Amino acid sequence: MLKKLMKHELKATARILIPLCLVLLFISVINRFLYHAGSKEGIFLFVSGLMFILQFFLVIAVLAATVIFMIMRFYKNLLSDEGYLMFTLPVKSHHLIISKLIVTLLWVVVSIIAIIASLLITFAATDDISIVMNAINSALAELKAYFGGNWVLVWIELISLTLLSAIANILLVYVSIAVGHLFTKHKIICSFVSYVIFYNAIQLLMLIVLVTFSYFHSGSINFAHMLPQEFFPVIIIVLLLECVAFYWTTNFIFNRKLNLE
Amino acid sequence: MNPILECKSLTKKYGSFTALSNVSLTLDRGKIIGLLGPNGSGKTTLIKLINGLLVPESGSILISGMEPGVETKKIVSYLPEKTYLADWMQVSQVVEFFEDFYENFDSKKAYEMLSDLRIDPKKRLKTLSKGTKEKVQLILVMSRKADLYCLDEPIGGVDPAARDYILNTIITNYNENATVLISTHLISDIEKVLDEVIFIKDGAITLHSSVDDIRLKEGKSVDSLFREVFRC
Amino acid sequence: MQWSIDSERPVYIQLIEHIQANIISGNFKPGDKIPSVRDLAAEAGVNPNTMQRALAELERMGLIFTNRTSGRYITSDTEVIKKLKERSAMGIIEEFIEKMKQIGFNEEEILELLTKTIKEMRK
User: Can you tell me the ipTM of this complex?
Assistant: First the structure.
């Protein structure tokens, strides 16, 4: 059932996002020629200027579309009229949440790849690339040193950190929308307010945890001095708890407090 | 004969407002039943409870002996008053969607009914009129081989010819294992098709009887009785 | 075929009357096969259970019989049909006589008027 929900979710979102990404890449390729052709004459400059602005707007559009779909799909498909269909399907409500989470995550990854590809396609020359690669490699090497040369651990923690952070942010949006649904009037405002409250609560929690951990670990409350191999796990655990809490709350609201208009 | 629906002392509140108070009700299989009552009487609340869209404050509700959940959603087919289909989808895509999620969905039947009503499956729902969208929804709901059909105002927004078609579909779809629960205001149109009627007022059931019994005892149609009982 | 069902009287009774009328008039001939309950109900625009009740009652009256394998049939028993026809006619006649009496005619006058009218109608 989960697969079917995801398939449906992909169908609903791909029809806008894929064309958008393709157009972005197409314009990027065109702009590469404009960039390297380099003629500085009047009309040409004007046209290529416009093209670069277009590319810029497309990058914004891809990002915006991903965020907007994340919010709209959750709200419109589950908590407005379409909810009558989705919540009477023979599926568990947490599958409804997970299917949207996974597909949103997928689009986040796809848009980031598309944007990086777009920039690389248009602006990158071979020496640019090696400069960037060197910078990345040396940062990773430094990180590896902290972890006592343990590559695997570095990658596990980096990936967990990125993934959990993305998931936590998405679930934060979902739980805010779900909390907003509990109110009969001004649902959207309540969602927004609860987003702000949850966001700040998490920031505060993170701060408290880091300070506490730093204090007990090294006697100083300045956690900026914490080493990556201590810093990362703490954040990962907090993020994990955040994900669980938001997921559980959203599911609870769906199971016990659903009230479609 | 196990009943398809059993409600015992069912109560549902919205804040301080009691939508259903202590409702006890049993629906047998193989019946076409009308749920009749004025706006705000609790009809839609009851139907939502049957479909697991609401959780009661107290009391129990069992569909085919099971509590509302994934298993009951497989055997209950729900037609809400609203259009609940995504506008961007084509009719054929919606049929595919139903086929995907519901094992007991008969897509052949659905396409037959669509062609009977001259609805083009290639059209996007966005381009259809409200009445046509409602017909599509009804076709989807009736194409499932469910044990309980909950139809909320199925004939309200459609023209008289389509109305006849819909009532005809309900009759020919009949099987002794399945029950159709119809919530409506248009009683006179639908009276002959109903086995039983339930009158509901202010969250309580005031009458549950067969149509013929009412005509025998009261000497008038259910529609007339309704107007009397619910006079403003 | 138009089934006119009014809203005041029980549906199953009206269904019985409608079928009886069709048997009498010969629309349903003796030995004719009857459509399935569902088809008949759909044609009449009524609930299948109600139609089933009407058919069961008609069977009890001996106007319909069920063959377990092939379905329901109008009885071939012409005696039964004849009796039905007679009973129906008696009902109409009794009602007519009552109404005429209410207007003020006595029995001889009714018979006279009846014979005269039939002669007129033949022309």
Answer: 0.93
